[in-house]
Design the sequence.
């Protein structure tokens, strides 16, 4: 039997449509505002002067709900738990936020009365838990951004970023010398490139040197001293960063 929609029926029908359309959104907003969901990924470190340890823990909050973090706990192979850091007052993981926790180095571990060396690397499984105000939460294992990046760009050829630096200043392949001097208690640095230009960040009164004086360290130093520049630059030194004719 075919039922024809009358005007009152149509009115009820169109009043129902917005509710049907908004229902999935209502479920989503209810889901994101209730409960707890935190993912975590870790960075493992080891040095000659410390025991193996987790140097960084990154927590991501997947809910629109603030979480107080009192402890971060690592559980190895569902057997041994290690409270890797505690916070008083607690750290606050903001709604939908990200929290980077840097962990201090470790001298050694004790399991009971005996020394213990944890195994943080594959194939051992590391689970991260956090203590909140009222419970201990299991964190979902997250993948570091480097893994995600490599997965997405694996079809491309990869160019590496190389940064060469001297005295905390990055220089290019064109830079061949550095001039270093003291200004009060501060070490100052200027770079000279193979074309004779001087990059000094506003600290010197000249910005170029004739390239005939750039054959080697000795010729550059002789030029600077002949022009009395060494008298203005206390404890001046010339450092060759790259052979002038490479």
Sequence:
């Amino acid at each position: 039997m075919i039922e024809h929609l009358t005007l009152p029926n149509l009115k009820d029908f169109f009043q129902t449509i917005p509710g049907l359309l908004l229902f999935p959104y209502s479920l989503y907003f209810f889901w994101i505002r209730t409960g707890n969901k935190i993912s975590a990924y870790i960075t493992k470190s080891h040095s000659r002067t410390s025991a193996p340890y987790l140097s960084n823990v990154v927590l991501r909050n997947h809910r629109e709900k603030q979480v107080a973090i009192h402890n971060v706990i690592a559980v190895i192979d569902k057997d041994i738990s290690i409270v890797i850091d505690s916070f008083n007052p607690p750290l606050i993981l903001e709604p939908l936020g990200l929290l980077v926790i840097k962990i201090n180095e470790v001298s050694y571990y004790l399991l009971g009365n005996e020394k213990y060396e944890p195994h943080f690397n594959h194939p051992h499984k590391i689970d991260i838990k956090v203590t909140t105000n009222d419970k201990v939460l299991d964190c979902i294992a997250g993948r570091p951004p480097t893994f995600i990046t490599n997965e997405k760009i694996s079809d491309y050829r990869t160019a590496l970023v190389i940064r060469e630096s001297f005295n905390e200043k990055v220089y290019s392949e064109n830079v061949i010398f550095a001039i270093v001097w003291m200004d009060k208690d501060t070490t100052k640095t200027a770079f000279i490139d193979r074309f004779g230009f001087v990059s000094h960040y506003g600290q010197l009164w000249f910005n170029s040197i004739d390239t005939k004086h750039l054959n080697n360290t000795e010729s550059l130093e002789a030029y600077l001293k002949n022009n009395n520049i060494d008298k203005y630059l206390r404890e001046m030194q010339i450092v060759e960063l790259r052979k002038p004719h490479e």
Remarks:
- DSSP finds three helices and 16 strands in the chain.
- The radius of gyration is 31 Å.
- The longest strand covers residues 80-93.
- The CA atoms of residues 161 and 172 lie 12 Å apart.
